[in-house]
Design goal:
The chain is an alpha/beta fold and 315 residues long. The protein contains twelve helices and eight strands.
Length: 315
């Protein structure tokens, strides 16, 4: 007999609840969207949102730009998702270029839009993400402080970033793990990882957090999965995030891309889907709490992976 699972109002739901409430016994999944730059991108985004709505993700997240015009769209899009769909939105928020007063205003806009789940991040320096970090004179230095600030601002549920290969500014994996544990102790309910391609990097992170603090180690660490749809763009993203693409994987992708002036997109996507499906299969066997897909606002590759994994429960 299937246990009765009471429905949860999206305005009150939390990511942690959604992960616990999978009625199918399948590993839950979530997807990440980027705020659109123009009206054509916005129309594409909404088509993608509606495609995923039919597949019943545990939650969807909306990123926050490193600066510039897309930032203001995050609160609007997350609010429209909260109010106009059956999806649970998580809004990313960074401390970049913001005073504490600015951050309070963005958090207030989320409350008004019915968005109660926030991913609290420090962000990277605008322009050169690998350049020197300077906090806003009246702002925050670290994501841990943003976790506290969001918490102070009302009834929010907070997640944070995690780094299977260590954050590039941390002085090693031990320091990186201490930082994640601090953010969880500050009140974060879960973390979502940076993209990675080697399952063992994720598993070692999970072990490190559990060893450092079993209570915090019990909180979900959701693996971030990047379905590769362009060799050029994933190589750039890997350079910026510090994620290692194993040489054999890169060679397969480059072969698929071909030697023409533009990549063979279908062939690259097919290899990317296979790489991600194999990674996810291993992670599911290892009991991950969910899989979080960075869609870049394109549904096809993620849907193909979900089909391979038999994870999409179509409404
Ligand atoms: C799932 C996910 C989603 C993301 N979404 C976005 C997004 O929407 N927009 C965006 O701009 N960026 C995003 N990022 C990128 C993120 O902002 C960067 O990776 C950033 O460099 C680190 O952010 P953080 O929140 O982990 O920072 P922090 O946790 O503050 O860590 C930053 C660095 O400071 C160190 N540190 C922290 N606390 C201390 C301390 N007390 N003393 C000394 N050192 C300390 C850490 O070890 C680390 O090296 C995302 C990353 C992930 C993994």
């Amino acid at each position: 007999m299937t246990a009765f699972i009471p429905p949860i109002d999206n305005a009150e739901a939390t990511v942690a609840q959604r992960l616990r409430l999978s009625s199918t016994g399948k590993t839950p999944f979530s997807v990440e969207f980027l705020p659109p730059r123009d009206s054509a991108a916005e129309a594409r985004l909404w088509r993608t949102v509606r495609t995923f709505e039919r597949l019943d993700p545990a939650f969807v997240s909306v990123t926050y730009g490193a600066g510039g015009s897309t930032r203001e769209h995050t609160a609007r899009i997350a609010g429209e998702i909260a109010q106009g769909t059956t999806l649970l939105p998580v809004a990313h928020l960074t401390a970049v270029g913001h005073s504490v007063a600015d951050l309070r205003a963005v958090i207030g806009a989320h409350a008004e839009g019915g968005v109660r789940n926030i991913l609290a991040l420090r962000g990277d320096p605008p322009g050169d993400p690998l350049g020197d970090w300077h906090k806003h004179p009246d702002g925050l230095e670290y994501a841990e402080e943003l976790v506290h600030l969001v918490d102070e601002c009302g009834d929010f549920h907070v997640g944070v970033a995690a780094f299977p290969e260590g954050h590039h500014r941390a002085g090693g994996l031990a320091e990186d793990t201490e930082n994640l544990v601090r953010k969880l102790r500050a009140g974060a309910d879960y973390s979502i990882t940076q993209m990675f391609f080697i399952a063992d990097d994720y598993l070692r992170l999970r072990d490190r957090v559990s060893a450092a603090d079993p209570e915090q180690g019990a909180k979900p660490i959701i693996p971030g999965i990047m379905p590769i749809i362009s060799v050029r763009s994933v190589a750039r993203m890997a350079e910026l995030s510090g994620a290692v693409i194993p040489a054999a994987m890169l060679a397969d992708l480059q072969r698929a891309a071909g030697t023409g002036p533009s990549e063979d997109v279908d062939a690259v996507r097919a290899v990317g889907v296979e790489i991600a499906s194999l990674l996810c299969e291993r992670l599911i066997r290892e009991g991950v709490p969910a899989l979080h897909f960075c869609t870049l606002n394109q549904a096809t590759a993620t849907c193909e992976i979900l089909d391979n994994l038999n994870l999409a429960s179509r409404r």
